[in-house]
Amino acid sequence: METSKIKAAFLGIMLASLCAVTAQAADLTVRHAWSRATPKGAQVAGGYLTIDNLGNTSDRLLSALSEAARKVEIHETIMQDGIMMMRTVDDGLRVAPGETMTLEPGGTHIMFIGLTSPLSEGQQVPVSLFFEHAGKVDAIFDVGTVGAKGPRLLLASTRPAVHPVLTQERASESFFTHICGTELMANVTVSPGKSGPVELTIQLEDADEKPLVAQALTVTLSSPDKEIAPVAAPADRISSDTWKVRMSATAAGKWSLALSVQTVGSGRIDIAAPILIE
Ligand SMILES: [Cu+2]
User: 184-191 and 214-223: which strand pairing?
Assistant: First the structure.
């Protein structure tokens, strides 16, 4: 190899090692990756980052992996029949050529599901992001304080938070669903995850992932596909941020789980997400 090439390669390595916060692959740059410290016992955490597509073709973030969680998902929110619905991005998150996409609280985000241990402030969480064209891009998520509003050491984005999502975990007897809303998030355990009588345990968090103390919570189960009329039930508070309700999911299949939360400050908040009953 020519000396100049060796020098160039060496310089490349030097530059790469200098950019600890920035992961780059071809025309894609990932920066400002951050997360929040989680309260004790938390099963989920949001992840946020900025993606720059400096290339001439669009790319898609297809999936993510981390040893910090059993599963890493990409969440986004859609409006459906006037209700905010959360969903997992299964077909990838498109980043147009020249676009800078910021995943932030209240908007499209990464979700760490089934944390192997709580995230603590100052922790650096390695995450592999998989793009359709750029391939694997390794990023380090910097963990800020509980309820942090933006990445540490950097000015927080001034754009208002705008979004949420749902995910579903199935255990043998029960399943866990995380519903992210603009102003609130809910960690829902449905037990058992089968048709018949079910017990739902719902822990509420505010948009900053802090426990939310609500005034009242009404849960509605409906199955539009099966023409089963929606059934609503008030939940009972079992601790400051946790509620419980017994309901009946009379058939297997896709149901819509809607939460109507009466908050102290902002009135009523409605969020919904599809759930699958076996
Ligand atoms: Cu989420």
Answer: unpaired
